[in-house]
């Protein structure tokens, strides 16, 4: 017990020391007036323009000053990433902990000595992978223990292995020289400092000239680094050499939280949110045993493998990412996937449609900073993939702060959402500009996202057009076909309050010409099934195990995950949340799922959430405005099977045109990690 207490005290003391050192170093560097002398050829490499990377080398003595170089480079490119080689000893780990909140991430390892492996070979491989994946790598040629200003072979080996140039950096500032082996410069507040960055060393050219006599590469490297130190020590009033730009700047760590107001509001409201979640439990919108997941507490074991996090808000988004998740799992076998959703129905659908040993589901925490930190601390994703319009400022800011690559797939930005985000333009820009990339659903969505701040857009493409046909229980399909044999079946899918009465009215009109008709009413939210059955006149419910008799006109199909069954039973389908009078203003639903299963499709005119999809399918989808219009369309489909088939063929061809999109996006996702 005493030993555990001593360990706890040491940990607390270490954390306090790291925090104090970080606060002082940050204060000293922020209050220093900096001058940057940067070679014109080095600038695009140091700021990683167009994904360029380089090995950044500097003497170990200026290590405390180098965060200023990062603070200068990072605002010039939202996508820049940096890793620094540190030793695996106690001092190296402390340095890594001090600078990590500034998004300066470490790779631990150093050269073997006296037969003891210190991870040098593994670190070299990780640095090479980082350089090839658009990440800068910083290294001290004389570190970690000298001799002072004598370059070792690691810098040359890394640059050769990765095929990347080397940028040499010198620096000085008002400070004190510590009595260490490297005579380290420790900055003092309110002083002056200078950074000097040399032209890059082209390794291809060096390889061609190697062996031609004269100085060795390490000697050239030492002389060049000494020259940069000398240039940094020259007074700022002196002009820089030809080919160098000179600027004076005030620096500070870049804040990556998109909105301090949003952050503060969420923190203030957080004590009331558990009561809100409890209220949702009473409405059946939360699972009591898992409600703590919405506060960031895990309910499943993480495992030890690398993890990719996918987030989909509800059923539609979950369905769209299923082929993408499957493609990632197929392309790489040594990682696991965390899928988060916001709704219970989406969670149940995921369990039905993607039962995989490497897939874990959790509910996403509400956008409270403390809860988000708890979530990320536990799951530690290597990358995050968000879907459609799921843009939560605090969670995205936390991901950016931790240098987690964030991607947006099927990016959607409706006209109304675009207007709302434009009012918070600064927040939107700070969220979107740091996405590793954005794949928009359509060209129109891409343009809106770009105007809001997205800087790297991949090809557009709707994942809903790439999903396979919905699955079905073949035995249940055969049983229902036998029970309902001889009946004409029409399905109204994803219906909402305010339009189901109109569907019932249309059903009665259809029955005048086709007495054998059966209308499937499939509510968007299955929990409404019992109330909907009563409202429609106590009609049978699939959720209660009831099968319609020959006299029943309507059948409420209030089960989850059986759309594939209903679309195979019906010859024509109406897509709900689209008729005038629908509660909530409508917006439509995904037309691709019935299109893939040979259904003729109609919809109301309120399809603003899927404008692009309906525009692409305009030749095959019929728009109806009233119950009378809907009834007339269904009668036409029953009376003209050839016409019905032609319309179904038109939409099916469009709905299956983008089958390879998940594989292409999966490669882009995995490239952010491996």
Automatic annotation (TrEMBL):
Annotated site location: Transition state stabilizer: 388, 464
Keywords: Transferase
Active site: 317 (proton acceptor)
E.C. number: 2.4.99.12
Name this protein carries in UniProt: 3-deoxy-D-manno-octulosonic acid transferase
CDD domains: LPLAT_DUF374-like
MF-aspect GO terms: Kdo transferase activity
Protein's UniProt keywords contain Transferase: yes
Species per Swiss-Prot/TrEMBL record: Acetobacter pasteurianus NBRC 3278
Annotated 3-deoxy-D-manno-octulosonic-acid transferase N-terminal domain residues: 290-466
GO biological process: lipid A biosynthetic process; lipopolysaccharide core region biosynthetic process
GO cellular component, as recorded: plasma membrane
Pathway annotation from the record: Bacterial outer membrane biogenesis; LPS core biosynthesis
One family name in Pfam for this protein: Glycos_transf_N
Domain of life: Bacteria
Keyword Methyltransferase applies: no
């Amino acid at each position: 017990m005493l030993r555990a207490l001593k360990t706890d005290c040491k940990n607390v003391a270490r954390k306090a020391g790291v925090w104090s050192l970080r606060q002082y170093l940050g204060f000293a560097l922020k209050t220093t007036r900096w001058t940057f002398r940067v070679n014109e050829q080095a600038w695009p490499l140091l700021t990683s323009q167009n994904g360029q990377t380089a090995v950044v080398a500097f003497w170990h003595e200026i290590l405390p000053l180098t965060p200023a170089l990062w603070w200068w480079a990072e605002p010039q490119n939202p996508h820049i990433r940096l890793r620094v080689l540190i030793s695996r000893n106690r001092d190296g780990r402390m340095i890594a902990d001090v600078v990590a909140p500034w998004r300066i991430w470490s790779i631990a390892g150093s050269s073997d000595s006296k037969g003891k492996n210190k991870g040098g070979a593994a670190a070299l491989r990780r640095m090479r992978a980082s350089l090839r994946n658009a990440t800068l790598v910083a290294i001290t040629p004389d570190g970690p223990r000298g001799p002072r200003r004598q370059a070792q072979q690691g810098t040359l080996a890394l640059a050769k292995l990765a095929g990347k140039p080397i940028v040499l950096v010198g620096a000085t500032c008002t400070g004190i020289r510590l009595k260490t082996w490297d005579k380290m410069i420790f900055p003092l507040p309110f002083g002056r400092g200078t950074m000097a960055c040399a032209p890059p060393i082209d390794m291809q050219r060096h390889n061609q000239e190697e062996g031609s006599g004269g100085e060795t590469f390490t000697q050239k490297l030492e002389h060049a680094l000494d020259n940069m130190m000398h240039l940094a020590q020259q007074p700022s009033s002196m002009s820089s050499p030809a080919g160098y730009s000179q600027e004076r700047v005030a620096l500070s760590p870049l804040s990556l939280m998109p909105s301090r107001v949003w952050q503060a509001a969420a923190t203030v409201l957080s004590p009331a949110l558990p009561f809100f979640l409890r209220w949702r439990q009473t409405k059946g919108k939360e699972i009591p045993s898992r409600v703590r997941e919405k506060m960031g507490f895990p309910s499943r074991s993480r495992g030890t493998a690398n993890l990719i996090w996918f987030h989909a808000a509800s059923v539609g988004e979950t369905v769209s990412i299923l082929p993408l998740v499957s493609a990632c799992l197929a392309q790489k076998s040594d990682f696991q996937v965390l899928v988060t959703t916001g709704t219970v129905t989406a969670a149940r659908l995921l369990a039905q449609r993607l039962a995989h040993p490497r897939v874990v589901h959790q509910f996403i925490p509400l956008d409270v900073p403390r809860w988000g930190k708890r979530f990320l601390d536990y799951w530690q994703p290597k990358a995050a993939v968000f879907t459609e319009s799921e843009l939560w400022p605090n969670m995205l800011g936390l991901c950016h702060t931790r240098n987690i690559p964030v991607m947006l797939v099927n990016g959607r930005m409706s006209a109304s959402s675009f207007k709302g985000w434009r009012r918070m333009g600064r927040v939107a820009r700070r969220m979107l500009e740091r996405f590793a990339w954005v794949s928009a659903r359509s060209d129109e969505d891409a343009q809106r996202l770009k105007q809001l701040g997205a800087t790297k857009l991949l090809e557009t493409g709707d994942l809903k057009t790439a999903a396979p046909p919905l699955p079905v229980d073949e035995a249940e399909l055969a049983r229902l076909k036998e029970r309902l044999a001889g009946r004409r079946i029409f399905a109204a899918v994803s219906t909402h309050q305010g339009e189901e009465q109109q569907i019932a009215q249309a059903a009665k009109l259809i029955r005048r010409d086709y007495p054998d008709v059966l209308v499937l009413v499939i509510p968007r939210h299955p929990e409404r099934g019992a109330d909907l059955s009563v409202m429609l006149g106590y009609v049978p419910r699939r959720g209660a195990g009831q099968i319609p008799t020959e006299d029943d006109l309507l059948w409420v199909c209030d089960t989850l995950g059986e759309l594939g069954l209903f679309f195979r039973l019906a010859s024509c389908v109406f897509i709900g949340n689209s008729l005038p009078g629908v509660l909530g203003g409508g917006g439509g639903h995904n037309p691709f799922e019935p299109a893939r299963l040979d259904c003729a499709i109609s919809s109301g005119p309120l399809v603003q959430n899927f404008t692009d999809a309906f525009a692409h399918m305009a030749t095959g989808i019929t728009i109806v405005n009233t119950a009378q219009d809907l009834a007339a369309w269904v009668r036409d489909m029953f009376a003209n099977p050839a016409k019905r088939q032609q319309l179904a063929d038109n939409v099916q061809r469009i709905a299956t045109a983008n089958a390879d999109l998940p594989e292409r996006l999966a490669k882009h996702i995995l490239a952010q990690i491996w």
